[in-house]
TrEMBL record:
Biased composition (Pro residues): 187-197
InterPro entries noted in UniProt: CO_DH_gsu, START-like_dom_sf
UniProt biased composition (Polar residues): 146-156
A Pfam family annotated for this UniProt entry: COXG
Annotated stretches, region: Disordered: 146-203
Annotated organism of origin: Kribbella rubisoli
SUPFAM superfamilies: Bet v1-like
Protein name: Carbon monoxide dehydrogenase subunit G
Length: 243
């Protein structure tokens, strides 16, 4: 089946293109996806998907078949297999980036998807709706990453005041009195360093499985609503006729 998506990113074309080519930065934006290895045009990874009581974990590899930085055009082919043998998935993704306005980029993604196993029970329309919702989450995450890029380049003004402020209070008492040196050890509080590792460890949301239950059920309910209403009306008419 073929899926088509178009969205706009509030960043220049070159910046967006660089982000799309940085898989270590982009892959975590897709719910449930984890990048395992990345070398040149080859990469491997996994994706955890949960469809109600059914849990799927695809593992596979992908290749950049085309990558044109001048035209901002890329073609990726990816293949994956569920570890429990519940199905396979093959996708050929074509992405095109174009300037949508000052400081914004329009991204067009065409996907030729082939799936087997339990996920194949869903039709193209449902998969298109689900992929639209997933793309919304991906786009939101990508926008936040692109928004934080300029702020990462501005630590220099924060670093300059700290060295000026720290040496003056600590050096002044240390040179005049020796007791100040005794006060320095408690002031150097070693507890803060152990607080830093938990912050880095918390940046691992990519391993969380993608639960499509909350996404699929509302779509199924919306699609089934007309049929349910029709069935209820038919039942009421039948009862009225019998009377």
């Amino acid at each position: 089946m073929k899926l088509e998506h178009t969205f706009v990113v509030p960043a220049p074309v070159e910046q967006t293109w660089a982000a799309f080519n940085d898989l270590e930065r982009v892959v975590p934006c897709f719910p449930g996806a984890t990048l395992t290895t990345y070398d040149g045009d080859e990469f491997t990874g996994s994706c955890k998907v949960k469809l109600g009581p059914v849990s799927l974990q695809y593992s596979g590899n992908g290749t950049f078949l085309e990558r044109d930085p001048a035209d901002h055009h890329a073609v990726i082919e990816a293949k994956g297999k569920d570890r429990r043998g519940n199905g396979t998935a093959t996708a050929r993704v074509t992405a095109r980036l174009a300037e949508a306005g000052p400081g914004s980029t329009e991204v067009t993604v065409d996907t030729d998807l082939t799936i087997t196993g339990r996920p194949a029970q869903f039709g193209r329309g449902l998969i298109q709706d689900v992929s639209n919702k997933l793309l919304d989450q991906f786009t939101t995450c990508l926008k936040t990453k692109l928004d934080t890029t300029p702020t990462d380049n501005s630590p220099q003004p924060h670093d300059t005041p700290t060295p000026h402020d720290t040496p003056t209070p600590h050096d002044a008492p240390a040179t005049h009195d020796e007791p100040a040196a005794h006060d320095a050890p408690p002031a150097s509080a070693p507890p803060p360093p152990p607080d830093a590792p938990p912050l880095t460890a918390s940046s691992e949301p990519a391993a969380v499985s993608l639960d499509l239950g909350n996404t699929v059920l509302p779509i199924l309910a919306r699609r089934a609503a007309p049929y349910l209403i029709g069935a209820v009306l038919a039942l009421l008419l039948r009862r009225l006729i019998r009377r």
